[in-house]
Input
Amino acid sequence: MRLVLVGPPGAGKGTQAQFLASHFSIPHISTGDIFRANLKAGTELGKQAQTFMDRGELVPDSVTNEMVKDRLTNDDVANGFILDGFPRNVAQAEVLRAILAEKKTPLQAVLEFSAPDAEIIARLLQRAEIEKRVDDQEDVIKRRLEVYAEQTAPIVSFYRNEGLLISVSAVGNVEDITASAISALSRVAQ
Ligand code: AMP
Output
C-alpha cells in the first residue's frame, strides 16, 4: 500500500498514520517528525528547517524534496509506505509523482482527513498544552492553517483529478476514524 495522508494540522494525521502503518505493516514517514528529529540532533538539515518551522512556514522544497527522495530509497519501503505531511504543495506532489514513476511504484491512494476549523483549532491548542511544540502557539497555529489553505489544500484537487482521493471525516473517536479509513482503503487495489 503506497499511501499519502492529507489534512490540516490537527486533523489527527499522525495518530491515524501510526494505526494504519501497523495495520498494513508499512513504514510511517512523517516529514515533520524527520525535521524535528534533525532539530533535536542539531544536524545541518535541522538548522536549515528551524526558522521555517518556528514560523509555521513550509521548509523550502529544495530541502524537503531531497530529504523525501532519500528516505524513499530505504529498503523498508519495498512493500509500501504512508507519507504524512508530504506533499504539502502541488510542486512537491509533482516531484513525488516523478520519484515514484521512476521506480514504477505509483501512489495507490490519497486519504484526506477533514474537520471543521473550530475543531482543528481546539485540538491544536489542546496538543500545545500536552506536547509543548514551539509551533503550537496560537499565532503560529494561525499561520500554519493559512499555509495549509493557500499552499496545501490545492493538492486535494490535484489528487482528485488523478483519481486517487478518498475523503474521510476526522471528527469522532480515533478508533472509528481508523475503521472508516481502513474500510475505504480496502476498496483500493493492492
Ligand atoms: P507537521 O509535523 O507535519 O505539522 O510539520 C511541522 C512543520 O515541519 C511544518 O509546519 C513545516 O514547517 C515543516 N514541514 C513538514 N513537512 C513539510 C513539507 N512537506 N514541506 C515543507 N515543510 C514541511
In short: The chain has nine helices and five strands.
